Amino acid sequence: APSFRTRESNSTCRKTTVAILGGGVAGITAAQALSNQSVSDFLIIEYNGDIGGRMTHTNFGEDPDGNPYVIELGANWIQGLGVEGGPENPIWTFAKEYNISNTYSDYSSILTYNETGYVNYTDMLDEFDEYWGVFEQDAGYILSENLQDRSVRAGLYQSGWKPKKDMMAQAVEWWMWDWETSYSPEESSFIFGITGYNLTFYQYSEENNLVVDPRGFNYWLKGVASTFLKPNDTRLLLNTIVTDVAYSSDGVTVTMDDGSCVEAAYAICTFSLGVLQNDVVTFEPELPDWKDTSIATFQMGTYTKIFLQFNETFWDPDTQFFLYASPTSRGYYPVWQSLSTEGFLPGSNIIFATVVGRESYRIEAQDDETTEAELMEVLREMFPNITIPDPIAIKYPRWSLEPWAYGSYSNWPPGTTLENHQNLRANVETLYFAGEHTSSQYFGFLHGAWFEGREAGERIAGLITSECMNVESGCGNYTSYDVLHGTTTLDEYNAFNGMPISPFYVADSEDE
Ligand SMILES: Cc1cc2nc3c(=O)[nH]c(=O)nc-3n(C[C@H](O)[C@H](O)[C@H](O)COP(=O)(O)OP(=O)(O)OC[C@H]3O[C@@H](n4cnc5c(N)ncnc54)[C@H](O)[C@@H]3O)c2cc1C
């Protein structure tokens, strides 16, 4: 282990043993793991003015007394709670400990619409569920037999689900797939899409509870942080933007946009995959090819909630979800969620629409007025017999443009491997990585960030204290793979496989 504290250093950089880059769930959990092993010499460096990262809230609209409501712009659900006697999602454990107010999302509380208004196609939701049974078994078979991965689209097709151009079936499919992963079935890995689903919803439970708490969802994380950080703790550097990370086997130097710097024996980078993919931070030396390939391979999705407040609740106040099938465009403002319903913010007259992927990019790039006009057109199609007033407030985040996130959460493309993902997790010398995206089990979820932050903290604490708490996979270096092989060897590029001409053939060249 590098013994930073004994190293000679003449630089004026602030010195610490562990620099934790980012104060989201993974960063705070990493710091907690270090503290739990009495490693108190760390610094948390955070871009924003508060901790929480992608679990963030804001004020919106007004209640009858003129006070704003609090809405969650990022993470909103505790997903997969746990059952009596079984393992429990740690976020659910914290939600209970800190009395985070939340309500069960009842996915059967749904009304379905198309461009003509209310049309009941909920039977298609049940139909999709039947295909899902076959679909997930197929994925399990592919995994256990080590067969080639394919897309979720291919998996759905082979299970018999073919929505074709039926836009209501497309809306159902969006509700069942894209809404969770923020990518289409074509863009998602069959094996790892199903693995991720199983590990959260079958290991814990299929329940999702939506958080609506005036203190914000991240109140629990602040509670956790307060167990090892004092008020105004000088180890938490807020409003501090990292621009360069220089690493070696001796330690890491982190430089900020104001020119200040921190030298550490180790660093844990918890920046999102979107941040890593957008060259916000320069790594010196450049990250090795195996690391860079993994950063390039995995996807950063975008999930956008668009909140509207009206002066009345013109939709059914007893229904939680409203599904809309656009006649022309799959994923065009498909899911609407009422917050005006009992258990959420009753009487608030707030409803929000969710879009993901390409629609998110499109909508996040346009102004509120343009989006409001599109939303109102959809609502007027859904409720043709009601005179819908104009909204009194609109708000939505631009996740795809946020320089500290560049997207919402990660997803696995078809055809990748666990080894490739392991390279996303693995450390490069003294520089470690953690976050939602480094979790192969729970990518995209708060609990994924929590487990990964804890593991990175424990691995480093194990090096420093010589006592390894991470019993299953050890401390110090993560496993990584220098080479990721494909499935077809060069000699198999031949006529029998439909390629009699060498893929390297160049006309008029002496060499093939
Ligand atoms: C819209 C949306 C909806 C979601 N819904 C759910 C949900 O319902 N349930 C669920 O379980 N999960 C949900 N998630 C996912 C969940 O929010 C994430 O998995 C989790 O918050 C990620 O935590 P993290 O610590 O890995 O990353 P982050 O929260 O991104 O933390 C990284 C930190 O690094 C900081 N940072 C970035 N760049 C720099 C820099 N250059 N210098 C200094 N600091 C920097 C950031 O400000 C951030 O605080 C949702 C996410 C979004 C965006």
From TrEMBL:
Domain Amine oxidase positions: 25-460
Cofactor: FAD
Residues annotated to bind FAD: 242
EC number(s) reported in the record: 1.4.3.-
Pfam families in the cross-refs: Amino_oxidase (PF01593)
An annotated Gene Ontology molecular function: oxidoreductase activity
Family annotation (Gene3D superfamilies): 3.90.660.10, FAD/NAD(P)-binding domain (3.50.50.60)
A GO BP annotation: polyamine catabolic process
Keywords on record: FAD, Flavoprotein, Oxidoreductase, Signal
Family according to the record: Belongs to the flavin monoamine oxidase family.
PANTHER family referenced in this protein's UniProt entry, alphabetically: AMINE OXIDASE, FLAVIN MONOAMINE OXIDASE
Identification of the protein by name: Amine oxidase
Organism: Amniculicola lignicola CBS 123094
